[in-house]
Amino acid sequence: MLEILFVLGFFFMLMLTGISLLGMIAALIVAFAVMMLGGFLAIVIKMLPWLILAVVAVWIYRAFIKPDQPKYRRRRLP
């Protein structure tokens, strides 16, 4: 919600200062891209402890429970 208000405020400030429509569209695209990358980075940082926990859990599971041999055999061509 805050991002939408930022983009609208950015658009109106550019309009009030007399920037052309093409300049406003270019500035909005750049602002959108920067905010999207910032949001992705925030999500990665927020999820990082859970990702590390999942990796450790799988590592411990595989250390104690060995996988069985595969039940299929590779077919050899004559």
From TrEMBL:
Native organism taxonomy: Bacteria, Pseudomonadati, Pseudomonadota, Gammaproteobacteria, Enterobacterales
InterPro entries: Phageshock_PspG
Record keyword Transmembrane helix present: yes
Keywords assigned by UniProt, alphabetized: Membrane, Transmembrane, Transmembrane helix
Domain of life: Bacteria
Bilayer-spanning residue ranges: 7-34, 40-65
Protein name: Envelope stress response protein PspG
Pfam families, per the entry: Phageshock_PspG
